[in-house]
Design a protein that fits this description.
This protein is α/β, with parallel strands linked by helices. It has two domains: 207 residues, Alpha-Beta Complex (Spore Coat Polysaccharide Biosynthesis Protein SpsA, Chain A), CATH 3.90.550; 40 residues, no CATH class. Strand 1, helix 1 and strand 2 form a beta-alpha-beta unit. Helix 8 packs parallel to helix 9 and helix 9 runs antiparallel to helix 10.
Amino acid sequence: MSERIARVSIVFPTYNNARFIGASVSAALAQDYSNFEVVVVDDGSTDATEGVLKAIPDTRLRYIKRDRRMGQSAALNEAISQTNGDFIAINDADDLSFPFRLSYVMDSFITGSPPLLVGTNHASANEFCPELPAYNQCEDKTSEGFLTILNKENLYRGTPFAHSSMVFTKDAWHRAGGYNERLSICIDFDFVLRVARLGDIGYLPRKTVLIFFNRNSFYRTKKTSVYLKTLFAVKKQFRRDFRVPLRVRVQDLLYLREFIKH
């Protein structure tokens, strides 16, 4: 009898991303992994998002429409709660997953002592690409490297991976209490730190997703002071739980200086 291949659910929260969502979902559906689904929660979009997604004829895609906007954290929790997978892969609506993303990352979860969450390196673009560039799809696999388990000090400084590269167990999401719906920014960092209280966080060096840096996004238009205030609050409990040494906390003084400026 062949060993069961774990099911992965790729989740998309989206709000008024009709320009991007079709290409992003199509890239997710092009995975070379054999057992996955794509779940999209439309967080009250008023643009053409619904029409774009309903035009994609793939039974692995589930589209869930909400009439009122909940916010990204709530939309993520809603999407994950609707999944059938053992693992969750995050995919922002304007980021493109490379076809080898799941097959590459899922190998990390079949080790003797697997992490609860793995993030990877990523490629970036200042303009949205409706299709993945060929050079990224044919990337030399010698760049794959090995899984690194991040220690608590490194995590306190910040994660080396983007939200859209994260894959984690659905059980870890349950035990961590899901995404914090009281936050509007730093939601991924907050979630990673809470999962880190439960077990290991891993990092892989190969680029598995193409990130679009949209200067007009909600998160990039937030004031620096608002971001830093939220970041300090997220770090506070983690600092207590893991007794982060003073030499590591010195970095916070640099953030504080920027906070005072604003």
